[in-house]
## 1
Amino acid sequence: MTVTIVGSQLGDEGKGRVVDLYGDAADVVVRYQGGDNAGHTVVEDGTEYKLSLVPSGVIRGKVGVLGNGCVVNPETLFSEIDALRERGLEPDVRLARRAHVILPYHRVLDGIEEDVKKDDDLAAGTTGRGIGPTYEDKAGRRGIRVGDLLDPDVLRDRLEYVVPQKRALAEDVFGIETGEEFDVDALYEQYKAFGERMKDEDMTVNAGDFLGKYNDGGKNIMFEGAQGTSIDIDHGIYPYVTSSNPTAGGAATGTGLGPGVVGQGEVVGIVKAYLSRVGTGPLPTELHDETAEYIREEGGEFGTVTGRPRRIGWLDMPMLRHAARANGFTGIAVNHLDVLAGIDELKVGHSYELDGEELFTMPSTTERWGRCEPNLKSFEGWPEVDWSEVVEQGYDAIPDNARAYLDYISDELDAPVYAVGVGPGREETIVLTNPME
Ligand code: IMP
C-alpha cells in the first residue's frame, strides 16, 4: 500500500515528524518533487540529523528514493550521505535517472532573479538553492538529468549547448561577471566525477520500474511530499510559489507510478495548527502583534534551510479546504497544537470576504487572495499542560477546548484526525491511526 504525506499549507507543517513516525512500517520512502529547499530535522537516539534532500527515512534504515520529479544537487546529496556515514549510518539512497540536476549556474541565477524581482515585489523569497531555474530548464528541454551524468559524452554535449546560453543570460541580461559556475570545462570535470561516484555506488535507478517492483510485491511505499499545497506551482499562490507540485498528484508524475497507485492509498494532509510562512506574498490571516511573537518563539518558527524568522498567522480554513480537495485527504495530522497553549482566545479564518461575497475556498489569483478579509471565528484557548502525560493517556486527555479546535478542522475538511503533534519529538505525538499498519 502507499501513504502520501502532503503539506496542506505553506510548507513547514511538520511533515518530517509524520514521515518519521509512519515510515517505520514503510519499506521505501520516496520524495517526488523539490530538492534541497526542504528541511527536515530527525532525532534518533538523541542524535539530531538535519537533512534537506535525502529522504529522512534512510536514518531508520529505509531505502530512500529521489524520484524523477525531484531536482538533485549532487553536492548536497553527497555531503548529506557522507555526514550520515560519518555518524555510523549506511544510508541507502537511490536516484531517478530522470531526475534533473541542479548546477552551480542555477543557484547563481536564482539569486540574481530574486534580486531583480524585488523591485517589482515579485520576489518569492526563494531558498536560493537554484530550484526554480532548474525546473525552468527542465520545462525548456535544456536540463541535465541524473542519467546524463553517467555518460560523459552526453554530459559534454548538453553542457556545450546550455552553458553559453546561461552565461549570456547572466552577463548580457543581468550584467554580472561570471566565473567557474558558467565554465563548460570546469562543470564537465566536476559533474562527470559526480556521475562516476553515482555509478560506483550503484545509486541510480529507473524510479518507476524500481518502485513498481515494490508495489507489485505488496510492499509499503511512503511518498514524502516537501513544501506545501499553497506553494505548489499550479495550486499555490503564484508567483510566490516553489516550482514543483507538492500536491498528491505529483506523487504519480514524480515517481513513475500510476495515479491509481497513489489514489488507492492514503493521502495524509499535514496541518500546522496555525500558519507560518518563510516567503513573500499576501497572507490574509497574518498576525503582527504580540501573539505572533509568542507563537514564533514557542514554535521555534525560524526557517530550517535559511534561518529566517517566519511570518505567522491564524489558521486559514479556505486554504485548508482548497488543499483537502486538491489532494483528496483521507486523513489529517495536526501539528504544533502545544504551541497555541496559553493563548486566551484563538482565532481561525473561517471564510473570506471579497467584494461583498463570502468565499470558502481560495480564489485562484493571488491578487484577489491578497484582497480577502478573513471572517474570523473565535475559539477559547487552552492552558499549558503536561503534554507527555497527554501523549501517554491518549486523545481524550487533550484539553476540551483543544479538542473542539481539532474537531472543527476535521469536520470542515471532512477528514479524520490521524495524529496530533504536541511537541517537537516524534514521541510527542498522539497517534489515532497509522495508515501504514
Ligand atoms: P524555492 O523553492 O527555493 O524556489 O522557493 C520558492 C518559495 O517556496 C519561497 O517562498 C520559499 O520560501 C518557499 N519554500 C521552498 N521550500 C520551502 C520549504 O521547505 N518550506 C517552506 N517554504 C518553502
## 2
Amino acid sequence: MSRIPSRVLITGAAGSLGRMLRARFAGSFDLLRLADVAPMAPAGKGEEVVPCDLGDEATVAAICKDIDAIVHLGGQATEAPWSVVHKANILGAIHLWEGALKGGVERVLFASSNHAVGLWRRTDVLNHTAPARPDGRYGLSKAFGEDIAQLYAYKHGIRAFCMRIGSCFPKPADHRMLSTWMSYDDCERLIRTGLGADYIYEIVYGISRNTRAFWDNANAYRLGYDPKDDAETYADEVAGKMIGNPIADAFQGGGFVTPEFVGDPSRIP
Ligand code: NAI
Ligand code: 15L
C-alpha cells in the first residue's frame, strides 16, 4: 500500500523545474525541504532551504534525513565534460540513493531524460521497456540514474519513479518539441502521480499528451498520470523550426546527438 508523503525533499530546487514545483507545492506537505548548490529564495512557511553540493556525501546524507519522498531534479542538466557529469550526476546519484537508504526514505522520483534514449531513431516508438541508448555523457548519466534507482528499489525497497523527461518548458521552442514537450501543469501532474502511486520501480515518459509523441506513455497512464496539454496547440508557432542537421533531425535526442558525432549514422540500427 502507498500513502501520500508528508515530508518531501526537492534537489535542484534553484533550477527551472525546481522553482516551478516549489511554487506549486507550497502548503501541500508538512515539510518541503529545498536543496541546491545554487542560491535559493529564503524559506517560507513549511519550507527548509538547505545548501547542498550533490558531490558531497555527508551533506547529501544529511538532507535525506526525516524525509518520506525525494524529487531528485538536481544535477547537470545538459551535456558537459566528464568531470562535471561525474560529480553532479554519477557521484551525486550514488550519494543520493545511499542517503535515501540510510535515511529510510520511502520513494525517489528521478528526473531522468530523453537523452538516456536519445540515439533511438524518431521512427522508433519507445515505451517504458525500451533499453537505454544514450546520446552523450549526460544521457549516459541519466541511464545510470535509472539503473541505480532500480538497484535500490529491488534490492533495498526504495520505490523509484524514473521520469524520462522530454522538454519541459513553458511552451515548445521548435518542431521537435511537438513530440517531446511537457507543460508545467503536466509536470506537476506527473510528479504528484509519482508521489502517490503504488509501485516499486517504474520508468515513465515526462511528456504531455502530445499528438506527435515519440513515446508510448501507457505505463504512466496506468499509474494514474492524466496529462491535459498537447504540444500540437503550438504547431503553427514552431512550423519549420527544424534543427536543420540530418543527424539531429533523425534521432530522438535532436541537438544533443550531433556534438562529437563521428562518421556514418547508418551504423546505428
Ligand atoms: P536546471 O539546470 O535549471 O536545474 C538543475 C539544478 O541542479 C540547478 O539549480 C543546479 O544548481 C543544480 N545542480 C547542478 N549541479 C549540482 C550539484 N553538484 N549539487 C547540487 N545541485 C546541483 O535544470 P531543469 O531544467 O530544472 O531540470 C531539472 C532536472 O530535470 C535535471 O536533472 C534535468 O537533467 C532534468 N531534465 C530536464 C528537462 C527539461 O526540459 N527541463 C528535460 C529532461 C530532463
Ligand atoms: C534535457 O535533458 C535538458 O535538460 C533540457 O535542457 C532540454 O534540452 C531537453 O532535454 C530536450 O531534449 O529538449
